[in-house]
Design a protein that fits this description.
Elements lengths: L2 H13 L6 E2 H8 L4 H11 L8 E2 L10 H11 L3 E3 L1 H7 L4 E3 L1 H4 L5 H22 L8
Parallel strand pairs: 1-2
Antiparallel strand pairs: 3-4
């Protein structure tokens, strides 16, 4: 995975406000590059430095293996939830998920401007990396 893509994904995730969430596919769409699997790979390897709990499966399920920690963040941030999250907190049993319909991040105009800068930088960096160095390409 190219570090330029990693940096861009993490920059997008860093913009997601408290109490909001998006799917892996949403991040790829906002970035204009890659897909859910690529974003998921970035998050699983490099996502600990950003609010990783705000990026989840399209079903609204928390990242596998991190459900308890993610749930604590969701409750602290008042992220809309569905299901038996109270039971899950008490016993570790019970199915729950983020209500992505209510929680999905809708960027403001200012945030879209920031997203445009991130995606433009990524596009330029990837273009530079893909241009052959044969001294004949203009």
């Amino acid at each position: 995975m190219r570090m330029e893509y990693v940096t861009a994904v993490l920059a997008v995730v860093d913009l997601i406000p408290s109490g909001a969430a998006v799917s892996y596919g949403d991040v790829a769409e906002l970035l204009g590059s890659g897909g859910p699997r690529q974003v998921g790979s970035v998050m699983s390897h490099y996502g600990s430095a950003v609010p990783w709990w705000r990026v989840l499966r399209a079903s609204g399920e928390a990242p596998p293996g991190h459900e308890a920690e993610a749930l604590r963040h969701y409750l602290q941030e008042e992220t809309p939830l569905h299901g038996a999250y109270d039971a899950f907190l008490r016993t570790g049993e019970g199915r729950w998920r983020v209500d992505l319909v209510s929680a999905r991040w809708s960027p403001s105009d200012e945030e879209f401007d920031q997203l445009d800068v991130i995606s433009d930088q990524l596009e330029r960096q990837l273009h530079i990396l893909s241009v052959p160095d044969d001294e004949m390409t203009v």
